[in-house]
Amino acid sequence: QDAALKLKAVPTDGLTTKAEVHTFFAAANHGSEYLASEVDLAVAYKITPHLTGHLGGAVLFPSHTDFDAWSYLMLDVQL
User: Fold this and answer.
1) N or C: which end of the chain has fewer CB within 10 A?
2) Which residue did the predictor score with more confidence, 40 or 29?
3) How far apart are the C-alpha atoms of 68 and 37, rounded to whole Å?
C-alpha cells in the first residue's frame, strides 16, 4: 500500500516541478506493517516542442536498513 502526497508546480512556460512523499505499508493480510518512506523531486524543462529534459532524484528510508538515494538525467525526444 502506498500513501502519497504529490505536489506539482509550473512556475514558467515549459518548466514543471514535482515533489512527492510516499509511505509504504505491507498488504493488510501482513498486518499493515510499515515498510519505508520515500521523497521524490523532479524537474522537467521543454527545450523545444519535441525535446524535454528531465532531472530528478529520490531518497528511500526503509524500516530495516540505512537510507538509499539515486538520481537521473533524461532527454525525452518526441518523433
Assistant:
1) C
2) 40
3) 11
